[in-house]
Design brief:
alpha+beta, Creatine Kinase, Chain A, domain 2, seven-stranded antiparallel beta sheet, two-stranded antiparallel sheet, globular, ATP-binding, ligase, Putative glutamate--cysteine ligase 2, Gln_synth/guanido_kin_cat_dom, GCS2
Length: about 375
């Protein structure tokens, strides 16, 4: 392995990327993301679309603000963190910087995984984004979704692929816990996470079969790119994948969280999943024999009801109350959470979600009270920085 792909994982580090909507004070997404990034770039906090297209260096260990597919979005990334308190502080800091940049051009940011109000998404300028629009047509033109991606360090690609093969059965539970996109462009979708349904339309998205080893993983990525269908390897949208740039596993199934605390809980769960899977690999524990077709159904179920209905239990493949499935996840991760000192914090965070509901449930409560989808956006903008 090249040196950049090796890592010391005595304490696994964590980084979080969040995509945010840029909205006006009235509660409508506005195409001011590039203008906000101009402000951030002058402050040394991010990249303009032009700088990003040229391969800027904002991404890395120190945090960043960068463009996303649509002008109504921007993306933040934390610095590399070794404990969850750092993740919390980093997310609050970078959400604040993103909001300050947006306010400088007359807007705000809102941690919403889809737009509650109807809006025409506008593409961010750039050659790569242009190729995506040209290649995928309406699929790319409609895509205005915001996810949360959690990176966790691994020793090398062999350990990373062993982790990917073992965490895949638990990823739908993370979708359910993070659900924050019930409305889609002016209508109630009927889903808790409609972002996950929209995202599944990309041809390379979703659950994959076990890769077996690093060579098998890289061979599959090469084969997908060789089809000439996806734009590049960055468009390999597996539910979890190896980072192209860093020695990390990247878990991509979550909606962006309204509350920083929920994003921190997600980061703790993902790190514990990686730790647990790596220990299983070293102990010779077999990869769970669950087909990708079953996992896609489990992911659909998680996106449909979030934590308010049954989920597909990863151990039985049968429906079970969400609280029971989440409890099984915490039991599975118990030793890893104990080893990092995160057990109580993560358990409390999960309990809070189950008690008060996901972001999707909060959005619907605001809408029932006000009858106004713009009020949902305004409430989300307030909670983004709370």
């Amino acid at each position: 392995m090249p040196p950049s792909r090796r890592n010391d994982v005595r304490v696994r580090t964590v980084g979080v990327e969040e995509e945010l909507l840029v909205v006006d004070p009235a509660g409508t997404p506005v195409p001011l993301g590039p203008e906000a990034l101009e402000v951030a770039s002058r402050r040394g906090e991010g990249e303009t679309p032009e700088e990003h297209e040229l391969g800027g260096d904002a991404e890395g260990s120190t945090g960043h603000l960068v463009p996303e597919l649509k002008r109504q979005q921007l993306e933040l990334g934390t610095a590399v963190c070794s404990e969850l308190g750092q993740v919390d502080r980093q997310l609050r800091s970078w959400r604040g910087r993103a909001d300050a940049a947006a306010r400088a051009v007359g807007a705000r940011v809102a941690a919403l995984a889809s737009s509650p109000v109807a809006v025409a998404p506008e593409p961010t300028p750039g050659r790569r984004y242009g190729r995506m629009e040209e290649t995928f047509g309406l699929l790319a033109r409609d895509q205005l979704t915001c996810g949360c991606h959690v990176h966790v360090s691994v020793a090398d690609d062999e350990e990373g692929v062993a982790v990917l093969d073992r965490i895949r059965v638990w990823l739908p539970v993370l979708t359910a816990l993070s659900a924050n996109s019930p409305f889609w462009l002016g209508a109630d979708s009927g889903y808790a996470s409609y972002r996950s349904q929209e995202w599944s339309r990309w041809p390379s998205a979703g659950a994959a079969e076990p890769f077996g080893d690093a060579a098998g993983y890289h061979r599959l990525v090469e084969d997908l790119v060789a089809t000439g269908t996806i734009v590049d390897a960055g468009q390999v949208y597996f539910d979890a994948r190896l980072s192209r740039s860093w020695p990390t596993v990247e878990v991509r199934v979550a909606d962006v969280a309204l509350r920083v605390a929920d994003a921190v809980t997600l980061a703790g769960l993902v790190r514990a999943l990686v730790d647990t899977a790596a220990e299983e690999w070293r102990a010779g524990t077999a990869v769970p024999a669950v087909r990708a077709e079953v996992l896609r159904v489990a992911a659909w179920r998680a996106g449909r009801s979030g934590t308010s209905g049954d989920l597909v239990h990863p151990r039985t493949g049968r429906p079970a109350p969400a609280a029971d499935v989440v409890g099984a996840l915490l039991a599975h991760l118990g030793p890893a959470l104990e080893a990092t000192g995160d057990r109580q914090r993560v358990a409390d965070g999960v309990a809070a979600v189950l008690d008060r509901g996901t972001g999707a449930e909060l959005q619907r409560r605001v809408h029932r009270r006000t009858g106004d989808l713009a009020a949902v956006v305004r409430a989300a903008a307030d909670l983004t920085l709370a």
